[in-house]
């Protein structure tokens, strides 16, 4: 099976990071093709890759799957233990993953993923409220499991919250001790550190993203 993952820039593309981590955890060979965002012709290039005009997109033997959640579900059919083994935990993992996929608009808007960013300036209240909701959810899940991840062993849910964890670091968002430990666990993962190294080596910048809450 030939797999190629089309992604956006390492420093900024949170949606691309999620399936990239999943594929790395699967330990299957795959190619990566990066599309620089916000450059002349990039929208046309994205539309060539997928009618949705977005990344990530997974090419499987020349058939293309857009959207990070759809890619995650495809991968889980190949490797079922990407979701928790326990049925109740699996249902809850899917629920919180869908919650990240569809919600927390203020956090996304006011604290976009920007791995090179480090600031502790004041953040909009709506963003802080989203962050507090996430911390409360993390703490609840972590208190019910032995950890170090949300459902004991690493799962798709952790892949979806990894880019969120980076935002707590980038923007100095408040978190509990338990959630801070979880964030550190996600960011010390070897696969994430490989992605982060690529982000720090990247020279492409998105001025509008860098200007958010500067």
TrEMBL record:
Residues 3-83 form the GST N-terminal domain. Pfam families: GST_C_2, GST_N_2. GO terms for molecular function: glutathione transferase activity; maleylacetoacetate isomerase activity. Coiled coil: none annotated. InterPro entries: Glutathione-S-Trfase_C_sf, Glutathione_S-Trfase, Glutathione_S-Trfase_N, Thioredoxin-like_sf. One of its GO terms (biological process) is glutathione metabolic process. Gene3D superfamilies: 1.20.1050.10, Glutaredoxin. This is Glutathione S-transferase. It comes from Algimonas arctica.
């Amino acid at each position: 099976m030939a797999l190629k993952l089309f992604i956006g820039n390492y420093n900024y593309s949170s949606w691309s990071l999620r399936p990239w981590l999943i594929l790395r955890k699967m330990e299957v060979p795959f190619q990566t093709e990066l599309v620089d965002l916000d450059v002349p012709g990039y929208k046309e290039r994205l539309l060539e890759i997928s009618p949705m005009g977005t990344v990530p997109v997974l090419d499987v033997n020349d058939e293309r799957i857009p959207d990070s959640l759809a890619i995650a579900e495809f991968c889980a059919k190949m490797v079922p233990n990407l979701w928790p083994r326990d049925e109740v935990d699996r249902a809850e993992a899917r629920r919180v993953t869908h919650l990240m996929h569809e919600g927390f608009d203020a956090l996304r808007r006011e604290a976009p993923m920007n791995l090179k960013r480090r600031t502790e300036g004041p953040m909009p209240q709506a963003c802080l409220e989203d962050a507090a909701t996430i911390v409360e959810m993390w703490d609840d899940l972590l208190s019910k499991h032995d950890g170090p991840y949300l459902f004991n062993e690493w799962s798709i849910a952790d892949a979806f919250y990894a880019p969120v964890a980076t935002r707590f670091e980038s923007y100095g968002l408040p978190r509990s001790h338990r959630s801070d430990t979880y964030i550190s666990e996600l960011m010390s993962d070897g696969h994430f550190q490989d992605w982060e190294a690529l982000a720090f080596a990247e020279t492409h910048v998105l001025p509008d993203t860098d200007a958010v809450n500067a």
